[in-house]
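Q: Hi! First time doing this. I have a protein sequence and I read that you can turn it into a structure. Is that right? Here it is:
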Amino acid sequence: MFTDISRIAELAKEDPKRQFYSIAHLITVGALHEAFRSLRKNASAGIDGVTYEQYEANAEENIRKLHQRLKEGKYRAQPLRRVYIPKDDGKQQRPISIPALEDKIVQKVVVDLLSAIYEQDFLDCSYGFRPGRGQHQALDEVGRVICARPTGWVLEIDIRSYFDTIVRSALVEMIEKRVTDGSVLRLIGKWIKVGVIEDGRLLVSETGTGQGQPISPLLANIYLHYILDKWFEEEVKPRLKGEAYEIRFADDAILCFQHKEDAEKVLAVLPKRFEKYGLTLHPEKTRLIEFGRHAAKNARKQGKKPATFNFLGFTHICARSRQGKFTVYVKTIVESPSHLARMAEPPVTWKAAAVGKV
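A: Yes, that's right. Below is the predicted 3D structure, encoded as structure tokens:
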């Protein structure tokens, strides 16, 4: 399986336009067994009530039967089980959707296959839910861009209910740019259309990716890769007057600009770009601020406090080091954004590297 995935990655890297029409045969008994072993043993059971321990008692036979159903086209995705856990403030609850164990197994194999392809396509600006990348690297990049590049303006992007509003038909069209294997596409179709069981009722939506499933983060990354990352890199940046950078972790993103006029141009077209794909920017939380080595001085001239921005659970603040060099300080947000609960990463302790005096 490792050799096959490596070969897929090589082919995807060699030709960015190559379409993969035959990869479902790599969903083997061995791959399914390996995926099962990678699951968390103490994870909550899905709607079928089957736990890791129960499945493990007869794992070989269970996986063999699962593989047979996949080959014969008899595999059916099961609805997600909806539960609620308290938010960080203790006052509200956050919905969590739990897939059935066998759905987790099959999705894990498909995620490995698709990741081999899309890791060759995804841009360096994307850090969420990717191998060898995470919250730490994203925050380090924020410090590098703001401290070491001529950044003067930061555009915070906030997408309303991102995972729940993805347009499925548009998502499938994006996937088909790379994957045309009908068996794999049908599996993805089953997973993104599966409903949620809550209080004994089956709830089915017309949009979204069935958040809580192993496949959802990858699909969400594919969607924003085409809508934001690729568009910003290939179409927007060449038209700007100065430098510009994007840093994204899943649906949490900032855009950094050298010039205000560039930032304002992007802010003007961004809502229309997102609306085209069913996404809505939060009008209050999506905001443009002056942020960089001259921001604090300019704010004082206007009798204002320097603006700050939040990213990945941290408030970023323009500051000076003891040596008088420009730097960015960060402090933990008391009430972390809801999406941080999905990250499953440890807290970050980070300081941006200071650069020379200005």
